[in-house]
Write a structure and sequence with these properties.
alpha/beta; Alpha-Beta Plaits; 2 domains; 3-stranded parallel beta sheet; about 15% strand
Length: about 230
Amino acid sequence: MSIPQLMKTGQFEITDKAVGIVCPVYAVEMPMMVRDFLKKAKIQTDYFFFIYTYGSGYGEAFCHAKLAAEEAGLTLNYINAVEMVDNYLPGFEMKEQIALLSKKDVDGKIRKICQDIAARKQVTVTVTEASRQQMEMYSNILAKPILKRTTAQKYVIDDTCIRCGICAKVCPADNITVGEKVVFSDHCEVCYACLHNCPMNALHIVPEQSSERFRNEHIELKDIIEANQ
């Protein structure tokens, strides 16, 4: 189930034997939309799990997920993370990140997580005063400066843009409209989907390490569009 779709349709009641969230780590926190979804969701399950994907690290994201689950009235039974590609363009060169991917055994890690969930494995996360301080530190130095709703308004559009509308279609937050020009609103999720999926590579963020872009090899453009519409 796509969280962007659930947010748009207002479907917040979910009941099953096992329910989980799978999402990336953004600035060592969960995406803003995932946090908003958990605040609204009415999930009933005997086994709640949380799977993160991350690039260069996830800090206290496990503690962040535990607290968000508790606020939603859920017990976090299992949490894990899969190291993949860090697509944070201001900080990482995509060719280098892609070259490292084969060494990360992503498929093996996913198989192990699936086995854990099938076996209803329990993983305990303890939130200590030290971890709370770490979360606050990461929030101040990473999350707050990076995760801004107005981020996309500073993107640069070069003259190769053909106004095809792909950027608007892959945006999970309906933050982009395309007419005579591309317009960015003020509810960006900072997911970089528009940057990484522009067929003309016409969208850029300043600074960025290179103009190289990345999409998971198992995902096609139509899959992203369908998940967000």
